[in-house]
Specification:
The protein folds into two domains: 1-94, Orthogonal Bundle (Rna Polymerase Sigma Factor, Chain: A); 105-177, Arc Repressor Mutant, subunit A, CATH 1.10.10.10. Helices cover 73% and strands 0% of the residues. It contains eight helices and no strands. Helix 2 (21-40) packs across helix 3 (43-60), helix 2 crosses helix 6 and helix 4 (71-90) crosses helix 7 (145-152).
Length: 177
């Protein structure tokens, strides 16, 4: 979604059309959910957080300043903070919920995919919240270093170095399996 389209929707909401927020939800629901479920590793918890994120975004929409960054970055920052709060609140890491994987050709292929997915999730769970968040934003969400830096409140160089170290850690762990 372009920044201009986001701003148009936000202006429409601010002019008294709260139904326009549904457009925001339709645009960002799937990518935010993917980010959340990869952080908290539990579908129901991810759904609750997602609802909380959209409610918070709607309530705080007047505080969004387009000159300080893209709307999507602001939304991911809210999402990141909600995930961090949830993980701090829980302390224990729940058993991951694995989504159904499309394109299963054979039971053996299905088993291999599931084992690879479980190995990646186990490796991700052993990362710090900050490293896992940066990795998911870069690799799963495809965000730029600049967007990640704004979301994580870090310098771009720090994002690059953390992402590089995180990839090395993950490759090392996955090679051993």
């Amino acid at each position: 979604m372009s920044q201009k389209a986001d701003i148009d929707i936000i202006n429409n909401i601010k002019k008294g059309n709260p139904d326009a927020f549904e457009d925001i939800v339709l645009i960002y629901e799937k990518p935010l959910y993917v980010y959340i479920v990869n952080i908290v590793q539990h579908k129901e918890t991810a759904e609750d957080i997602l609802q909380d994120v959209f409610l918070s975004a709607y309530m705080h929409l007047p505080t969004y300043n387009r000159f300080l960054g893209k709307f999507s970055t602001w939304l991911y920052r809210i999402t990141r903070n909600r995930c961090l709060n949830e993980l701090k609140r829980k302390k224990e890491v729940p058993e991951p919920d694995f989504p159904d994987m499309p394109g299963r050709e054979t039971p053996a292929g299905d088993l291999l995919k599931k084992e690879a997915f479980q190995a990646l999730n186990t490796a991700l769970n052993n990362l710090s919240f900050e490293d896992r968040s940066i990795f998911i934003l870069a690799e799963f969400e495809g965000l730029s270093y600049q967007e990640i830096a704004r979301i994580e409140n870090l310098k771009i160089g720090t994002v690059k170095s953390r992402l590089s170290r995180t990839r090395e850690k993950l490759f090392a762990v996955l090679r051993k399996k």
